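Re: export button greyed out
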Amino acid sequence: MATGGLGLVVERASGSLVLVDRLAHSAVGRIEGLGDLSHASLTYSPDERFAYVFGRDGGLTKVDMVNRSIAGRVVQAGNSIGGAISDDGKLVAVSNYEPGGVRVFDADTLEMVQDIPAGSKTIGLADMPGRRFIWSLWDTGETWIADLSGSEMKLRKLADVGKNPFDGVMTDDGSTYLVGLFGEKGVTAIDLWSKDPKPVRFLKNYGKKEDDLPVYKMPHLQGWAFTDGQFVLPAVGAHELLWVDRITLEETGRTAVHGQPVFIISQPASPYVWTNFAMPLNDTVQVVDSRSHAVVRTLQPGPAVLHMEFAPRGAEVWISVRDANVVQIYDTLTFAKIGEIPAQSPSGIFFTARAHRNGL
Amino acid sequence: MATGGLGLVVERASGSLVLVDRLAHSAVGRIEGLGDLSHASLTYSPDERFAYVFGRDGGLTKVDMVNRSIAGRVVQAGNSIGGAISDDGKLVAVSNYEPGGVRVFDADTLEMVQDIPAGSKTIGLADMPGRRFIWSLWDTGETWIADLSGSEMKLRKLADVGKNPFDGVMTDDGSTYLVGLFGEKGVTAIDLWSKDPKPVRFLKNYGKKEDDLPVYKMPHLQGWAFTDGQFVLPAVGAHELLWVDRITLEETGRTAVHGQPVFIISQPASPYVWTNFAMPLNDTVQVVDSRSHAVVRTLQPGPAVLHMEFAPRGAEVWISVRDANVVQIYDTLTFAKIGEIPAQSPSGIFFTARAHRNGL
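Workaround output, generated via the alternate export path:
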């Protein structure tokens, strides 16, 4: 069967995944036994055959998309927040809080091939070309780059990235690694195409205003969108999007929105970004034009909109509505709801086209 | 089986395709009976199940990637130069010289659903979001946009695009349609995200210098690359790449290269573009850095390098070497040749990941 139209929806309360057929607008199976998926993400092998699911409890599960079953599973740490797959599909890395560090596994056998303790919680793990991984360290304010392309791993450590990095993300072109800071204002950019990458601070007023704002209320950098020569990111503790010029790294505008933005995602081949919001205003989604910076549409899918995923070429958007136990499908041109798939407490939605993208 | 790692190589002299497995670095089948593929391209269905092959003789062939066979075929015109599939995968459009115009087919049955005569050769066909297609007319200097999302087709005609458009291409973000002109100097840009798209001329010195330069010696716009805030395109009748700022549309630099560039292709997640050359200097490929505009590597794969295709995340490049009857595979980090697949007079190489990209 062809795998290009498949996807997985995380059922966060039951340790299960719904396998979906994007073209048929239907569920085609359920895979169970993935442990604690209350915070989970996944990545695909380059041929779309396997999904690697990273669960909060440190579980790493290899899911076979063709046989619709678990092909391998290891509980590799006590508490884990995400992972990535190398560009050649051979290695899977996982970012752990407990014990703090990154572990690297053979994508075929799930055997551990490298253990990279950090003495710190690790965050912001992403793949880089050439069988490399990058991540940051909460406690020490460093960013590490591991090169696993040779027989021996080469580890490069960049210091002075900032106080308490809480998240990191790669730009869509793979040129820059962005690091969000919890312990000071500002965002750090590291130019990965430079021979000597150095941390550079920008948006120097961006960050929490009160000392007691907990880290889980800081916006995810995974929520940034890259569109039309700009970054767009959530304001901290304010109901706004911030627009930043990619070349100058200067703020160029703000958009007042419905609530505290969580995920801002670019609609492919369009000037639009779609945003969802944090509790309690999380029944709403807004569409914003990257050129005018204006809200062009407001939708109300239902209680607890957790995630949005576009068809790779942009014709549809799939929206998980956790407390309605449903994934809704919208036509991005007309905003009509064109389908619905039942799912128990759905959170993340991941189409197989992600197999072909960097930095996820 | 998973389809995400598959690809097709055109065997231009025998009307056949080689089915390849990108991860295994091997051929896994051959499909024959596709007529005249001396000039051919193809596009994929959104689930990667089918390839639609557009042949010079007006043949439109639907190829089943799972069953490795021809699922449908129609000879729909006398002379045809390319095609596209709508973003929702429902319609396939073909661009014809004879009779001049565009024909649209049901992607499932290959039944013709719309005949759009132009009284002119049509060129530069691409898909646009919302089940639309765009193309240009050689004889009249117009660009047409067909909207097939409703029960009746809506056709929009833009005049004064330029004298004798010979090719057109969509930028990678889908924002702009670029039209190359044969009858006058300059390139036309049309902003597709505008409510009222208008042709705008730029690079006003770009174009043929001698009146008798035949159209087939003009560089393909399909050879343009979009990288790092720039366009990079082949100079006309000179051994140079031109670099253009995407925002200002002003030329920002030139790179002296080995021959007349044909295809310039961006290496994913990198600052590099790779270029091949026209006869007689077509045994060579060069790699150029988009930041320094300098050549960083020169390779000599062999006689008649016709096409290059990257692994979607950039770790490898596949290069067709027509007169050595082989497709070579290179590691983009080390430039080492890491594989080779026999193919008869290979030309275009197309991986299934293209199913998830716009404007192809």
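Chain A touches chain B through 52 residues (CB under 8 Å). The button fix ships in the next patch.
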